[in-house]
């Protein structure tokens, strides 16, 4: 599953994830100070002042509910690592667009007078980008990754519906739509599948001499070629002198 190029992304992918988590927790610790109510800097739908929340809200988490940031820490740690590991070339662009799209859609569709904070919208956007990208590109590596994402986060789909009071389903829906858009936008980016010799020959229209990718018992036997017959003609000296 992992070729040499992807393996080289392991350490920088971990660094990328730790930087994101460090920013999240720095914002959370600053919020714990009594002087400023940072939670008011969230996304306020269809209010001009609420546009600033598109940029600040992912750093804001409820100071009265530690599980809010703990759950987002687990989710962001995993998806940010996978994003950089598999999409190194576009990881920063996907992150920034996930940030803007999830917050922007929330600002547009959210209920007036509400306040949306937390990293969950960005997490949704990256998660669904990773999930849908594999199926759109029909890449074996990414499809396996997508199936793994379904296994780990299959229940996330319910978060885009207003089924629980106090949960920003608008932010989750914004992330879902943003992730879908980004999966289509960057459908040509990501890891390339390793091609074997026979696949290259097929693309070039070259018929391989031996089906070496098959087990020996399944190979098509080579056609039998009749060996040429060599016929010698000779004359006796007595025949030449006659």
Q: In which range does the helix fraction lie?
A: 40-55%
According to CATH, the fold-level topology is Rhomboid-like fold
For the largest beta-sheet, the strand count, sense and barrel status come to: none
Number of helices: 10
Write down the overall geometry: elongated
CATH homologous superfamily?
Rhomboid-like
Descriptive account of the structure:
The protein has ten helices and no strands. By secondary structure, it is an all-alpha fold. Helix 5 crosses helix 6. The model has no long low-confidence stretch (mean pLDDT 80).
Provide a short characterization of the protein structure.
This protein has helices at 4-8, 10-31, 53-56, 66-86, 91-109, 120-137, 140-153, 169-185, 197-204, 237-241.
List keywords for this structure.
242 residues, 10 helices, mainly alpha, Rhomboid-like fold, elongated, 55% helix
Q: How is this fold's topology laid out?
A:
Elements: H1 4-8, H2 10-31, H3 53-56, H4 66-86, H5 91-109, H6 120-137, H7 140-153, H8 169-185, H9 197-204, H10 237-241
Helix pairs in contact: 2-4, 4-6, 5-6, 5-8, 6-7, 6-8
